[in-house]
Amino acid sequence: MDIAKINNLIENHELKVAVFGTGRIGLPTALMYAKAGYKTIGVDINENLIRDLRNKKTFIDEPGLPEILSEVIDRNLIEFTIDFEYAIKNSNVMIICVPTPVNQNKIPIFTAIEDVAKKIGILLRKDQIVINESSVSPTTIETLIIPIIEQNSNLKINDDFGVCSCPERADPGNIVDNWDKVARIVGGSSDDVGKMIVKLYHNISKAEIVQVSTPGTANAVKLTENIFRDVNIALMNEFAVLYEKLGIDVKEVIRGSSTKYNFQPHYPGPGVGGPCLPANSYYIIKDAINVDYIPFMIRVAREINDRMPAVVMELIQNALNFTHKSLKGSIITVLGLSYKANIKDVQISPALKVIQLLNEKQANIQIWDPYYKGENVLGYPVGNSLEESLQNTDCIVVLTDHKEFYDIDLKKIQKNMQKTVVLVDSRNIYEISNLPQNIVYCGVGRKIRKI
Ligand code: SAJ
After folding, report:
1. Burial level of 425, CB count in 10 A (0-12/13-18/19+)?
2. Fewer beta carbons under 10 A from the terminal one: N or C of the chain?
3. pLDDT, mean over the chain
4. Which atom of ligand 1 is nearest to the CA of 269?
5. In the prediction, which pLDDT does 415 show?
6. Within this chain, do residues 309 and 328 fall inside the same structural domain, yes or no?
7. Catalytic residue among 164, 166, 276, 395
8. How confident is the model at residue 47, as a pLDDT?
9. Closest ligand 1 atom, CA of 427?
10. Looking at 166-245, which runs of residues are DSSP E strands?
11. Same structural domain, 23 and 145
12. Which of 225, 229, 302 maximizes ligand 1 atoms within 8 Å of its Cβ, making it the mutation to test the pocket?
């Protein structure tokens, strides 16, 4: 490989970049490369998506992104295409940002990344670099992706081309804001390749860029930080179930434990959603099984988190029973569909699981989520206002901790109701001491407050 040549292209901003996958991760990545002055090609299989992007339109709800899209198009720094061949032939660096989901049997599906790797391999030229940002297992790049590229190109890793992992660390809803803040991890197929890509990422982000020894190590870093989070959330969910039975308020406990300098607070809830945490554990488990090791903690944590929608259902049933009502036929107002606060994203949202369980119990569901006002989300109609969704409700269930829900006037709601209001707060956003006396309240890990 001509390392000097590639380094010069990077330093002189003459490097041409192709990004494969222009979704929630690929589009911000492509735009930030272009914004840094690198001629960039955004590639996707979805013709409508590419057409919209060419017309400066994006479905991705990331603050600041539409403005950058418009800017780099106007500056003629980016183009969008479905033509993989054109992109591979007209780039020095190719970045893979395609989905790597887990199927219903919890098996990671890497077909999208394998497909891109094969297309790249067939047209690969000497001195090209492939960077993978998609979430994969620690061994995927070295044992799957590099062999696919070598076999389809008859070129040799590190002699002819380089591969690098720079796992995405995006926080949906804050990608642009975090771009220069969240450190990036780079692991190259050789030290030279790694050093080169560190230099490249320094040119597109002011955040710390950390080189590790291999692509697999970089992917292990990403999975470790996410699974650490999933396990700690599961621990707090377990504490919540236990403390509720002991009559202890878990929110008060977390507040107390947080006074200890090395306690890292995590919070119980209705379950763990999003494109990352629910899937990442299964990448590690896949690799572990191949070396005859079955992880314990990682698997049990997933089971605990996946059981939380059922825990919330028990809370709803108990709270309704206290007002001598059953779920069947009751009107349940669900507040929040998104998998986490203050974003518009229902990927693997626990709220959808709770709604499915409520449907199975033949409850009448009225949904309010300010991010989905008046929309139909996966077959679920969302109201046009909070007031509309509260009409004649028997029970209010908070499933997402959107900021809009913190200052709902519960006193006014109670006054307007001709019946006792039941509030099931799966995100523990309300302070029990501030609640009107005549509201039946329960949270996750908080004993039911009767009237
Ligand atoms: N959750 C809890 N309790 C907690 C924290 C989160 O129940 O204490 C739930 C959330 O409600 C959500 C799920 O877990 O349903 C995931 O929460 P998250 O904040 O991890 O949400 P993500 O998936 O958007 O997190 C992403 C991740 N980024 C990547 O995987 C690249 C995660 O690693 C980051 O920590 C997070 O962004 C962030 O805050 O940056």
Report:
1. buried
2. C
3. 96
4. 7
5. 83
6. yes
7. 276
8. 97
9. 7
10. 184-188, 209-212
11. yes
12. 229
Q: Is the CB of 169 under 6 A from ligand 1?
A: yes
- Are 93 and 179 within one domain? yes
Domain housing 174: 3-212
Q: Is the CB of residue 236 less than 8 Å from the CB of residue 443?
A: no
Nearest CA to ligand 1 atom 33: 226
Whether 418 has a pLDDT exceeding 80, the answer reads: no
Give 449's pLDDT tier (boundaries 50, 70, 90).
confident
**Does residue 427 have its Cβ closer than 6 Å to ligand 1?**
no
Residue ID of nearest Cα to ligand 1 atom 9: 272
Q: Is 166 a catalytic residue?
A: no
227 lines ligand 1 (CB under 6 A): no
Answer yes or no: do 284 and 364 share one domain.
yes
Q: In the predicted model, is pLDDT for residue 428 greater than 90? A: yes
Per DSSP, 181 falls in state T
Residue 325 annotated among the catalytic residues of the structure: no
Q: List CB contacts of 85: < 8 A, sequence separation 6 or more.
A: 119, 123
pLDDT for 67-80, tens place per residue? 999 999 999 999 99
Band of the pLDDT at 419, cuts 50, 70, 90? confident
- Residue 379 is part of a domain; what is its CATH number? 3.40.50.720
CA distance 251 to 189: 46
Q: Which residue stretches of 399-447 are H helix?
A: 410-416
